[in-house]
Write a structure and sequence with these properties.
223 residues; mainly alpha; MetI-like fold; membrane; transmembrane; MetI-like
Length: 223
């Protein structure tokens, strides 16, 4: 079965529903991963050797947890977190349930990006702030986040793009969204129209996210 435009028109309601399920999933996951991943990334940096809140124990424990979660393939993480998902949202299927696993996968990913963005900052700027009597909170707020804002926004962009791919994978276990539509209609029913359409939607979505993210990162980069 080739691409059938008339058949595509019939599937528009299903495609529309799946698209907004995907947006819903990645929006929740992005908020959670940003709210938790940002402070984790900052802690990974400021507790490292030679920094103003050096704490090797905290650094090693956080680093181990982050690396451990990142090393687990998403499809395995998705299944492993089903009990936690059921506990939190009382179901293991649908976009809300999928957003739990998406968030857990995205937190360490974003945290490492934040840490790397902070490592790009000239340590002389931090030393100058310490010499001026700035408190650790002031250094984080007025120096680290300000200096690394462009890199952090680029990190948000990369995280969003990763979440789009993860959300498509979540469809294989009933997570809803574009991936679920592609599996149920495209793969199981050998429907090339829906397969091609879902792939194109994901490509366009990623391109829009990348272009918008790059633009915002350039706007806020005052270096």
């Amino acid at each position: 079965m080739g691409f059938d435009f008339a058949h595509l028109m019939e599937l528009i309601p299903d495609i529309n529903k799946a698209f907004f399920q995907t947006i819903y999933m990645i929006a929740i996951s992005l908020v959670v991963s940003t709210v938790i991943g940002l402070p984790v990334g900052i802690l990974l940096y400021i507790t490292d050797k030679g920094l103003f809140l050096e704490n090797r124990m905290v650094q090693n424990i956080l680093g181990f947890v982050v690396n451990m979660v990142r090393s687990i393939p998403f499809i395995i993480l998705l299944v492993a977190l089903l009990p936690l998902t059921n506990l939190l949202v009382s179901t293991t299927i649908g976009p809300t349930a999928a957003s739990v696993s998406l968030s857990v996968a995205a937190i360490p990913f974003f945290a490492r990006i934040v840490e790397n963005a902070l490592r790009e900052i000239d340590k002389g700027v931090i030393e100058a702030a310490i010499a001026a009597g700035a408190t650790p909170w002031m250094i984080i707020k007025d120096v680290l986040l300000l200096e690394a804002r462009s890199g952090i926004i680029s990190g948000v962009t990369l995280t969003l793009i990763s979440l789009v791919g993860f959300s498509a994978m979540a469809g294989t276990v009933g997570g809803g969204g574009i991936g679920d539509l592609a599996i149920r209609f495209g793969y199981y029913r050998y429907d090339n129209t829906i397969m091609i359409s879902t792939v194109l939607i994901l490509i366009i979505l990623v391109q829009v996210i990348q272009l918008l993210g790059d633009y915002i990162a350039k706007v806020v980069d005052k270096r």
